[in-house]
Amino acid sequence: MRKTVLGVFENTSQAERAVDDLQRQGFNKEEISIVARESTAGRGSRSRDDMEAGQDISGGIATGGAIGGVAGLLAGVGALAIPGIGPVVAAGPIAAALSGAVTGGIAGGLIDWGIPEDVGQRFEQRVREGKIVAMVRADDTKINEAADIFRRRGAREVETH
Description:
By secondary structure, the protein is of the alpha+beta class.
């Protein structure tokens, strides 16, 4: 059975490192998603010198370039206007779910991923607050590994549904 692990990150550097770790551990881009407000998507803790070309998440999305160290998620990048939140960027398979659920917001898009509405609303609020929400859909055998990676990389509110 597939489940979804969600984690809230304070900045893009944390989220990028978590996604990089997930990919190194065998999770593929069809399993990983990121959602952030466009105005805060570029906020990270790395200095400009530490970042490779195209690693600013907001600049990358605006120009169709890379999302930090997670260039493999590019196929699912989307910029959406979510009522009550404003411009949101989404990478990975969640982008399609959110584009079809704009009126239901982020919470509405997460319902199809097995996330209860009240939990989805809480994670939507985190995006509204300027946090970055990363999520991965995985089989039961890999969900604990995904949650551990999120926690090691600084995620708060790590949950599995």
